[in-house]
Amino acid sequence: MTIYDKDQLLTDWRQRALDFEREIGKAVVGLEQAIRSIAIGVFSRGHIMLEGDVGVGKTTLLRAVARGLGGAYERIEGTIDLMPADLIYHTYINEQGRPQVDPGPILKHGEWLSVFFFNEVNRARPQVHSLLLRVMAERSVTAFNREYHFPYLQIFADRNRVEREETFEIPSAARDRFLMELHIAAPEEPELQNELMFNPRFHDVDRLIETVRESVVPYREIADIAPVIQTQVRASEALQAYALDLWAATRKPGDYGIRIEGVDMSQLILAGASPRGMSMMMRAARVHAWLEGRTHLLPEDVLGVFRETIAHRIFLAPVYELRRETILRELMDGILRHVAAP
What's the confidence (pLDDT) of residue 52? Predict the structure, then answer.
């Protein structure tokens, strides 16, 4: 394929991606930034963690995403008694009174599964997290003495932030597998709130999802276009040096003059962003640039994905974890303010 062919391919696919965003926007309101982040995640081939209060539209958003991609959509609820096998198969007594084993939500559609939503993942036990980690990392699972592969699968998970009883925190290894963590909130604009409350089209979710055009970006083709984006969108040496400084600042923020009131900066960071995390950040930044119509990275492309791809990969000393949300917000602001962009 010539450079011209690749450029034309990227142009054609960019239009598809923008159409995808517009179609998703038919099902939800006030979530433009989340839709853009999900589009970045889709073309980065990364999994996404969602956070938000109950009833803000996370499930509707993901159903719309699944329809826009085509393929199958599955969802499972995290509970304290959920076991790893429940994701793979379920057993029951059939109409003939005999035991029967059927495929669970992960195996049910085979390689046609494109979106898997794990709701309230932190209600599930660590054994379940381990299986989820394998599926995320390898897009495969072993069951019934054979290996099943899901080459097009994208996993979304939601973490309950409100109730702490009978929950299990996601281990660092599992969190690091998520490309992004996105906060989904109800819109604050009065006109959008009025639309959600009083427009009947938002009261029937099934009919609402049907308004989204199906297979706008065919899920089976994304694995082919994603590497082209990564190879064609380039970073200058100055941009690379900037990204490396951002990485160093996640590990030793005090060295960059970052200060947070009431925090001993020398004791704050237990672990900064991982090499995998920074690599994922650059993958997302390249997609951001592509969606903006560029084949070269600018600092704003990195800034556009930095918080979503990096904040959840920074682990604080236990004494500061109770203030994690506030401290991380100030830390992210400080890093972006003190690390000089080219």
Answer: 81
